């Protein structure tokens, strides 16, 4: 019997099992192993008794690119089309984004004409002027990786790197752009400079993207493209997606084992099988798809593959505190997606999302309220708050309420709040990450290990990236293996 074990029941593992289950003639048995008592990972949504929805993890998904299109196709296949909450580019919750610096909010450009305005954030220069100068900046000498901050400081100036790139990296990766790899985070821009000596020239005149576009037959995707959706969520929150995936897996005969922490993986390349040892039992399967963070996978190899384990262990992960707040009435100075805070500012929040502005459908019905989410810590969590295992979430709440009150001039106390600490939730792609990926891929291929690596530790930390990585891994597995 052909069998595959998927390790990790977050959105990546659920997606891998989903794509495997769509090929029942090729894969006869699928087992999903999750170490905790629930599947879904960081996707966590709460509905209060008043009817409001709060997200304690990801809160919206983008539609752009293959990754965005792929997830819309999945949502359609799972029967979630009638629960979609789309946001158009013209909506204030999509286009109005801010940076908090120097004690005030600065609105970022949201239109073509806005690119030609001068901004205090960029030393009185316009983004257009910075862009027009970029092709004349000398190409970096030498090869090898470079930090995100160094790259954009050279190409677009230190003010742009400090006040645009830095807060963006904090908002997406909760990380320090001075430590992270531009080759891993912005591969197309990195390659553009290498090929043509400039981001602008490389993007305009470089080779087109290789590979065959994904074939996705989805009415929902067609609707999203026709109406030009920017982002979307679900009526009951994004955790609905993981719930729907679990239901589909059960329907398709996938065995889901929670509280099944994997301790060890042993590969028998001669017999082409894998011995999977959990706290409770031993399983023998033909292939393993690892959807857990790389630092969690490394100990499972039990010292048998040091080259692979060492590379898996290099990147640290950031811990993020999330504080959801609900206020009575309309308390925002401006509607928008929210704001981010550069690391040079003496603040203890990474950014604040204006949830009620982007998805008012999630507000409690019958009364006007404002919902906000503060993101805190990231790479700076230990120095700002201490050991994540010892921090009282009430302290995060106090800091969030005080800081947001100062930033947005809110004097009222929140009606409701939630505080959570997501320990080691976002891998940090440090310098050399792309080279390490190549070394791991080569080692797995050369050693003929029946192992696939998917998820946020490798080629993107977003939900869309993780789901697409699962689809690609399953497709590659089915194409390469001559299944019985």
Rg result: 23 Å
Query: Low-confidence spans: pLDDT under 50, at least 5 residues?
Result: none
Oligomeric assembly = single chain
Mean pLDDT, all residues? 94
Number of separate helices: 18
Number of strand elements? 20
Instruction: Write down the overall geometry.
Output: globular
Alpha-carbon distance between the termini? 8 Å
Q: Please state how the strands of the largest beta sheet are arranged side by side.
A: 8-7-16-17-18-15-19
Class by SSE composition: alpha/beta
Strand content: 15-25%
Tell me the major beta sheet.
Answer: 7 strands, mixed
The helical percent reads 25-40%
Characterise the protein shown here:
By secondary structure, the chain is of the alpha/beta class. It is 35% helix and 21% strand. It contains 18 helices and 20 strands. It has helices at residues 11-21, 65-77, 92-95, 127-133, 148-156, 158-173, 182-185, 187-196, 199-205, 219-227, 239-251, 294-297, 306-312, 355-358, 381-385, 393-408, 433-446, 463-480; strands at 3-7, 29-33, 45-47, 53-55, 61-62, 84-87, 97-101, 104-107, 231-234, 255-257, 262-268, 273-278, 282-285, 287-290, 317-328, 338-340, 351-353, 369-378, 416-427, 451-453. Strands 8-7-16-17-18-15-19 form a 7-stranded mixed beta sheet. The relative contact order is 0.19.
Structural key phrases:
484 residues, alpha/beta, 5-stranded parallel β-sheet, 35% helix
Secondary structure blueprint with pairings:
Blueprint: E1 3-7, H1 11-21, E2 29-33, E3 45-47, E4 53-55, E5 61-62, H2 65-77, E6 84-87, H3 92-95, E7 97-101, E8 104-107, H4 127-133, H5 148-156, H6 158-173, H7 182-185, H8 187-196, H9 199-205, H10 219-227, E9 231-234, H11 239-251, E10 255-257, E11 262-268, E12 273-278, E13 282-285, E14 287-290, H12 294-297, H13 306-312, E15 317-328, E16 338-340, E17 351-353, H14 355-358, E18 369-378, H15 381-385, H16 393-408, E19 416-427, H17 433-446, E20 451-453, H18 463-480
Parallel strand pairs: 1-2, 1-14, 2-10, 7-16, 14-20
Antiparallel strand pairs: 3-4, 5-9, 6-9, 7-8, 11-12, 12-13, 15-18, 15-19, 16-17, 17-18
Helix pairs in contact: 1-11, 1-18, 2-10, 2-18, 5-6, 8-9, 13-17
């Amino acid at each position: 019997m052909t069998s595959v074990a998927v390790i990790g029941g977050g959105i990546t593992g659920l997606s891998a099992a989903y794509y495997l289950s769509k090929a029942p003639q090729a894969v006869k048995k699928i087992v999903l192993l999750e170490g905790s008592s629930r599947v879904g990972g960081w996707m966590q949504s709460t509905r209060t008794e008043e009817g409001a929805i709060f997200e304690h993890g990801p809160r919206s998904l983008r539609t752009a690119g293959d990754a965005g299109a792929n997830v819309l196709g999945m949502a359609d296949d799972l029967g979630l089309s009638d629960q979609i909450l789309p946001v158009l580019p013209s909506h204030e919750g999509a286009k109005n984004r801010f940076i908090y610096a120097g004690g005030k909010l600065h609105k970022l450009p949201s239109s073509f004409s806005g690119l030609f305005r001068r901004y205090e954030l960029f030393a009185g220069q316009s983004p257009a002027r910075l862009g027009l100068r970029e092709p004349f900046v000398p190409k970096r000498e030498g090869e090898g990786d470079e930090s995100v901050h160094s790259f954009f400081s050279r190409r677009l100036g230190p003010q742009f790197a400090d006040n645009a790139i830095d807060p963006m990296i904090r908002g997406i990766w909760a990380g320090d752009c001075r430590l992270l790899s531009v080759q891993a985070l912005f591969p197309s821009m990195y390659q553009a400079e290498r090929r043509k000596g400039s981001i602008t020239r490389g993007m305009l005149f470089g080779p087109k993207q290789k590979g065959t576009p994904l074939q996705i037959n989805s009415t929902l995707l067609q609707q999203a493209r026709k109406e030009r959706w920017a982002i979307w969520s679900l009526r009951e929150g994004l955790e609905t997606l993981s719930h729907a995936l679990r239901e589909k897996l059960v329907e398709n005969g996938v065995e889901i084992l929670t509280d099944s922490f994997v301790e060890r993986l042993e590969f028998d390349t001669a017999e082409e099988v894998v011995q999977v040892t959990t706290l409770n039992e031993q399983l023998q399967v033909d292939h393993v798809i690892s959807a857990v963070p790389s630092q969690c996978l490394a100990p499972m190899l039990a010292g048998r593959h040091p080259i692979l384990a060492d590379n898996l262990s290099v990147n640290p992960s950031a811990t993020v505190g999330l504080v959801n707040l609900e206020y009575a009435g309309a308390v925002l100075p401006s509607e928008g997606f929210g704001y981010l805070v550069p690391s040079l500012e003496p603040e203890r929040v990474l950014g604040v999302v204006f949830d009620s502005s982007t998805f008012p459908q999630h507000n409690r019905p019958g009364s006007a309220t404002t919902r906000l989410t503060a993101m805190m810590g990231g790479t700076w969590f230990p120095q700002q708050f201490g050991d994540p295992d010892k921090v009282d979430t009430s302290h995060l709440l106090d800091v969030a309420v005080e800081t947001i009150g100062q930033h947005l001039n809110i004097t009222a106390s929140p009606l409701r709040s939630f505080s959570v600490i997501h320990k080691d939730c976002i891998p940090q792609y440090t310098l050399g990450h792309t080279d390490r990926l190549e070394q791991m891929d080569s080692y797995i291929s050369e050693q003929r290990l029946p192992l696939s690596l998917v998820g946020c530790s490798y080629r993107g930390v977003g939900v869309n990236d993780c789901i697409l990585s699962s689809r690609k891994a399953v497709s590659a597995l089915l194409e390469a293996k001559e299944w019985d």
